[in-house]
Design goal:
Elements lengths: L2 H6 L11 H13 L23 H15 L1
Helix pairs in contact: 2-3
């Protein structure tokens, strides 16, 4: 486990995903379980994604596209 996960694992609920799409879909499924609650979905990468995206802007744009498509 990386440093960030070791710090939070016993204090807050979290899910690990290996792709941005999987993370977003998992978060949306969880949020839909309690649709009457006002909820915030925070996707916070705990590791670099140089092997998946050209740069942080590319990752951010991909995130925006996925949110528009699935929410």
């Amino acid at each position: 486990l990386n440093f960030f996960i070791r710090q939070i694992k016993n204090t807050i609920k979290y899910n690990s995903s290996y792709s941005l799409k999987a993370a977003l879909l998992s978060a949306l499924r969880e949020a839909k379980k309690n649709p009457d609650l006002k909820q915030v979905i925070l996707l916070s990468p705990s590791a670099a994604s140089f092997d998946q995206y050209k740069n942080f802007e590319h990752r951010g744009n991909t995130f925006k596209q996925l949110v528009q498509k699935y929410s």
